[in-house]
Amino acid sequence: MTDRRRSVAAAADGFMRAFTVDDLIAAARAHSPGIGVATVYRAVASMEDAGALERVGSRDGSALYVRCSVEEHHHHLVCTACGAVAHTPCPLGAPASDAAHEGFVVTSHQVTLYGLCAACATTGPEGG
Question: Check: CATH 3.30.390.10 for 72-128?
């Protein structure tokens, strides 16, 4: 891994919420001022392929990512106000396996739940 990619990974590690590539570029440049946009996009693609970043929706037309360090199968809860992210066990289970009985072979799935975190639910979306 190059020093630039390490800077991108370190910047991603610093987010405690969902982030866009633009957010990541700004954070990576704080660690490595000369880092280029293309380098960050390549690092994001590589980290996503490796399972270190996961896409969890979009904000204003830009993909949202979360740094994912949980190894077992899980999904994410994303606060639509502040971008906080929490991990949650897979909610599917039996219904997904039932699809196999209908002639389908389930090879993968993606579930992201959206709502308000406890802080934003208490203060309201504009306060989060």
Answer: no
